[in-house]
Records
---
Amino acid sequence: MTLPALIALDWGTTSLRAYLLGSDGVVLDTRTSSAGIMNLPAGGFDQAFEDTCGVWLDAHAPLPAQLPVIAAGMVGSAQGWVEAPYVETPAGADELVAGIVTVKTARGVTVHVAPGVLEKGTLPNVMRGEETQIFGALFGEPALGGSAGKSGGALIGLPGTHAKWAFVTDERIERFYTFMTGETFSALRDHTILGRTMHPSATHDEPAFLRGVDTARDAGQAGLLATIFSTRTLGLTGQLSAEQQPDYLSGLLIGHELRGLNEVLARQQSSLAGRTLRLIGNDALCKRYRAALVRFGCHDAPTVAHATERGLYRIAALAGLIAAPVRAA
Amino acid sequence: MTLPALIALDWGTTSLRAYLLGSDGVVLDTRTSSAGIMNLPAGGFDQAFEDTCGVWLDAHAPLPAQLPVIAAGMVGSAQGWVEAPYVETPAGADELVAGIVTVKTARGVTVHVAPGVLEKGTLPNVMRGEETQIFGALFGEPALGGSAGKSGGALIGLPGTHAKWAFVTDERIERFYTFMTGETFSALRDHTILGRTMHPSATHDEPAFLRGVDTARDAGQAGLLATIFSTRTLGLTGQLSAEQQPDYLSGLLIGHELRGLNEVLARQQSSLAGRTLRLIGNDALCKRYRAALVRFGCHDAPTVAHATERGLYRIAALAGLIAAPVRAA
């Protein structure tokens, strides 16, 4: 039986997921709470931590043999428990470890908070939490690390409210893009005229979704601001039912995201077509992206499982918080 | 002194503007009401019409010498007073006249409602009201009508909640695009994370606005979903103040609209650079577009004044509602 060796926290804006891990990285227990950093209980971070992890700490040996704690995500932002300033691209796991900042809990436990990653430039980009998932994916599949010789390195997509696409070369995050796809979809559906003719549907309408993807791909040259209006006009002209409109709009937006990504790839003489990449995220959303990627000629985009806890484990190991192999075999 | 000869109504979703015109088209009086078709008083269309135009009708000779009434805009939609089905592109003033539908008011006055225009296709487009403004602009400046020989015809932009860009050839609306720029701006500002770091500013920040336009033009290849996130990250990295962020985002969106329009033009071997076009809309917004157009090399984009009332007057004249010259000299 594996003994607990690490508490790993994925602490974002709207949720806190805690993992109790063994020294070999196996997940012994998981606890999830809605106490994201924008939704903390009275008592703040400390109380949320106690509510979620107290039972594990109580069951374990007391100080000084306390379980080490690693955390990543918005908990390290300026609005977080303690600010772990961004490390800049190109950023590898070693840079993340060097950027760890600690905070002591009321109980006296030291929480190690990993930093996010910043890419400077005309369009600066930031991530907090995704970098840990990316290193978790690389841990499980080192070949993904991407050599500089390959066009732009390995490509990893993290669909979501703010989707990220990261280029990884020599196991370092070289650069990345943020697409506000999920949040823009919600804003358009709930707060523009497009929502007024929509009916929610319990089932996913794949043809409507793919029609949106194809429209963005083939007729999207005027840009998103122009194509989204077709959600309404296809309805007005009897070509898209009220129930189909949400999935069509979702397809349009994801299609525009992939069209944009393809433009970025084109500038480095590459393309989504025929490319191998990895997705990290919830299954339903990754499935949606996989279907959209096929329309861009990309047929090899599996989802990486357990990226979050693997990434946290790996960073903790590299930081010396646990005795463990720091590189995958 | 010119006698009243026509009541002309620009009746949209959120407002009703009524013009009392002379037989030569001169504006004798104007009345504005918030009784758009989504904001009608008890008593509905009839009451809104009476509230706005009753005083003019009372002052005029009774039936059968009643003042003729022409209307355009959402009043002719399926949610309007009477539905005037869309006429299809290519659509000239004659097609609009042929599509007029009438409704009789409680007072016994006949209101002539002009139809909107529909362009079929993968991305269908519709307009209601803008077609009348476009014909008003052509009435004042017939050379604008655009001969087929010129690349794609004349180009007329109507900035707004749903911005329209119409290509006009031989005085007919050949095709057009709808960009949901204004409404998307509001949805992003008021209902996404981008608004959280913004402070409203009483003054327009031209440098911030133009920075957004330039970013969309020069670094917009990944698309709107990617560039908008820079509103936040430029703030996070101390490069854009909270007060600058609204104008920067506005510049980004208008920049993406013009970038998209430029892509459309590129496919017909044309470009915004060096092009002559016309704008129709409120002065502040047209000024903003003009500044953005300069960044795309377009230095000749004056605003056409009085397009709405001129368009209504012209259609009424063509329909025989008033004795007037139907073609400009």
---
Amino acid sequence: MRPKIYLFGDSITEFSFDEGGWGASLANHFARTVDVVLRGYGGYNTRWALQVLEKVFPRVEGGGEPLAVTVFFGANDACLPDRYAAFQHVPLHEYKHNLHSIVSFLKKQWPKTQILLITPPPIGENGRLRNPYSENPVTQPERTNEAAGAYAKACVAVAEECGIPVLDLWTKMQQFPDWENAYLRDGLHLTPSGNRLVFEELVVKLRDEGLSPENLPVDLPLFTEIDVDDPLKFFNK
Amino acid sequence: MRPKIYLFGDSITEFSFDEGGWGASLANHFARTVDVVLRGYGGYNTRWALQVLEKVFPRVEGGGEPLAVTVFFGANDACLPDRYAAFQHVPLHEYKHNLHSIVSFLKKQWPKTQILLITPPPIGENGRLRNPYSENPVTQPERTNEAAGAYAKACVAVAEECGIPVLDLWTKMQQFPDWENAYLRDGLHLTPSGNRLVFEELVVKLRDEGLSPENLPVDLPLFTEIDVDDPLKFFNK
């Protein structure tokens, strides 16, 4: 059975197999070694994620432990409590507590699985004013970069407290001058370049934990290993 | 447990999660309903595929039947027997027999699973002369469009004999005037447009069999179904 890496998160995960998406790129990167399994739920925050955790990751007899799970929530938790997306808001201390609960659940279910947290990305507030999901004209963004930054910081703290790796996307993206336009297409969701950045950073983080195609068993002989003079030799071993 | 669609084939399947790839697009199309599982083995022909069938599709207790399996071989079987890729060649009658054996194996293992054959694509012979995998300068292509066409025809015949759907890519692609350059990047593997065509044709074929996101149970409540005034209501049901 080929091992799995689960991608668990909100819309930024759910959309990750769209053209040039970071999830699809990861599946391509691990094409002969790992099944990359999409578990993205658009709009979800950590409060809702906790409600569905056992359904998303059911205990399956003989199902084996996944190699890794990426946990990528916070962009919705960080919606401001006094603007139109307030129903998605989760207070900062609860977000931290929820993330801890998600990590604990996964560690208990699969002690050897590598858990990797991803912070929410920065917010392009101008981009959010053009948000097509809001019915009324928006004059104030429902998310701010400052709020997202507080949740990102909390996410990094949880990772440190749990002793697991974290990809601090909020900080990483803002190191690039034109990050708002380069990486975000509506102030929140990723452009192809934004997807590329997430993919490349994840590849490095996973490799740091020993999870790269070179270190993993290849599913069936590679074409380049097959003996041109006796192709079936390999399969009969 | 979310149902699965397996993609079984050669390099055109293995590369299908690369940027704009048809496999990734399919995974995105079914993002909340189906796990699209990659089982592509670059360079493989049906003879080698038969050797590994039980390893690729092991019988797992309680594993459930996949919704569908795409079987996409023939581009390597159709290599000419007197050119440099002769070790990949499989005679036409054996190719037909092997395809029948693959379909029988899958039908026996999973009687309710929809099997869908895909014919090899047409061959751009000029593109093959620039094939980077050949060590010596190539003056004659190792694949011809005529040979690929014979295998495609055999594939269509097998589908008819088995009473299963088939995507006749060889015929479909050649309906477009500039197919060699539009759909093929090296006379064999797909361009973004070629990937798009495979994806769109597959979506239609699968929908014809009742397999589309609208007809399948959605994994967990959609954001749009959640009650803004009482978000947890949905999860407590």
